[in-house]
Amino acid sequence: MIRYLIMDVDGTLTDGKIYMGASGEVMKAFDIKDGCGIKDILPRCYITPIIITARESKILTNRCDELGIKHVYQGIRNKLEKLHSLVDDLSECAYIGDDILDLQCMEPIKEARGIVGCPADAAKKVLKIADFISKKDGGNGAVREFIEWLEINK
């Protein structure tokens, strides 16, 4: 039974573009449908959302506050170590990510019989191991599509 949805951010919850101004990061776009899936569907399924991302962003902090995501870990390059500190049983995890850094969690979750998913525009190595490949690109409703799939296949 899936109890946790671990999500990458850039390229998964966003389109992977980072808009930079003279004083640093100024903008990221998030899909409202992904937000609805996280805020409204996951609680009905008793699934806890967890963000583990390599970058740090005040923009992400604001979005997670808006969605009520309490478990947000930024600036994490060793995602698997962080995941192990949060979750005892990887078979209870679903993970959605898009790039090679996500494989460090995706592979052990898949080996433990958890579920791994990715956006349509994920890296080839990620696409190769995914149990679920969204028809949508990152930042364009891929996370929502994965959440709906998890809800149906629970």
Structural account:
The protein has 154 residues and is α/β, with parallel strands linked by helices. The chain has a single domain, classed as Rossmann fold (3-Layer(aba) Sandwich). It is built from 6 helices and 8 strands; from the N terminus they run βββαβαβαβαβαβα. It has helices at 32-44, 58-67, 79-86, 103-111, 124-129, 142-152, and strands spanning 4-7, 19-21, 24-27, 48-52, 71-73, 93-96, 115-118, 132-133. The chain has a 6-stranded parallel sheet with strand order 5-4-1-6-7-8, with helices on both faces. Strands 2-3 form a two-stranded antiparallel sheet. The longest helix is centred in the N-terminal third of the chain and has 13 residues, at 32-44. The N and C termini lie close together (7 Å).
Name the beta content range.
15-25%
At the first level of CATH, the class is Alpha Beta
**Count of discrete alpha- or pi-helical segments spanning 4 or more residues:** 6
**Class from secondary-structure proportions:** alpha/beta
> Total strand count, please?
8
As for the CATH topology, it is Rossmann fold
CATH superfamily: HAD superfamily/HAD-like
CATH architect. name: 3-Layer(aba) Sandwich
